[in-house]
């Protein structure tokens, strides 16, 4: 038995015109573009069945800050965005870039936004801006705001000004020139800020400023963070504690401690002002008195008295 093979003629292939080939390539290109758009928009949009507030939507964040509060402010502004207590964005921008607007994909719910300039992000850890123990507060400014994003919000407008994150303190030791045997220590219980809100964060703060001699005595300057309690103090010490050692371990080193926080709070000092007034403390050894001034008020405290709230 044998099987016969029959050869059928191959169908003639239709010759494709140039125009038809061009049309097919164009359709392929459009298909790729449409696929890419679906992938991109799918990350910031909802399907019909999804709850809208759980989906990402593009929102433009616009700053109305007109100009830096100080000509010396330089560098990039670090922007932090939080939702549900989680950081969803960190980026750096110039103030001009924020004025132009920044498009960010966000869920339609509460949002906390903070911006900081002048603070090294090397000291930003675990959602905190922390001051290293033994260091003064950086010369930094910032803003923070909270919004509830609803279905109709397409733009968020931030505040118009930056607030200082530091307060200047000047201590004058009158009549204490030459080889003065005492140093100065500034202590408190605020060691930085929470990133989401820029509210003070509680932790040990200690700084021993260097002294400059002038005609009236010795001048010591430092920057402290904003306070939200009454535990700020200024102490005269025989030996300045090392920055790695918690102040107060050797109480015999402390000659005199001024409860500066208690005095400022009782006198109505405004820690929440956009730019808190500088604080000046003049210690007059001859008169055994201390003169504290800030803004438009002055308070005199005798060194032998206990200041009780």
Structural class: mainly beta
Shape: elongated
Which percent bin holds the helix content?
10-25%
The CATH topology of the largest domain comes to Immunoglobulin-like
The major beta sheet can be summarized as:
6 strands, antiparallel
CATH class of the largest domain: Mainly Beta
Report on this model:
The chain has 309 residues and is mostly beta strands. It folds into 2 domains: 53-163, Immunoglobulin-like, CATH 2.60.40.10; 167-191 and 201-302, Immunoglobulin-like (Sandwich), CATH 2.60.40. Helix content is 12%, strand content 39%. Strands 6, 7, 12, 13, 16 and 17 form a 6-stranded antiparallel β-sheet that branches. A hairpin with a 2-residue loop joins strand 2 and strand 3.
